[in-house]
Amino acid sequence: MDRLENGDVLIVTKLDRLGRNAIDVQQTVARLETMGVHVHCLALGGVDLTSSAGKMTMAVITAVAQFERDLLIERTHAGLKTAKAKGRKLGRKPSLTAAEAADARARMAAGASVSGMARRFKVSRMTIMRARDEAVAGSQAA
Which CA distances in Å does 16 have to 1, 21, 33, 67, 79? Predict the structure, then answer.
């Protein structure tokens, strides 16, 4: 961007080369237009995105991309809701089984260190602390 000057032509293969999302692409093209730089996209037949026809084409493509993104989000949320309704546990499998977590808590209650339990069960210290803290939170909720 720093090397572009008024009257230059920037040629990109696809719109996604100009930004991370549709709004970013539009802002980049607008910024380049204010600099006097013409932007041609080869995937769109070499149309100049700073021209009236190019702006319309980009607006339509942006609207379709946003629509597809919204549909993906809706489907993801619907899938998560269905999985929860079926009682599936979401997320990663726990590093410690319930029995291992209980064993670690019992050993720590008897004086074992968090680091020692982490080494024993081959997990991180944070996993052991989380198991310890979940037991405390569970007893307070009851």
Answer: 16, 7, 17, 16, 28
Distance CA 142, CA 130 (A): 18
- 99-123 pLDDT tens trace: 999 999 999 999 999 999 999 999 9
Q: Is the dihedral of CA 44, 50, 56, 59 positive or negative?
A: positive
Domain range annotation of the chain: 9-85, 98-137
Amino acid at 11: I
Q: Is the pTM of this model over 0.70?
A: no
Any idea which fold 9-85 has?
Answer: Rossmann fold (3.40.50)
Whether the pLDDT of residue 142 is over 80: the answer is no
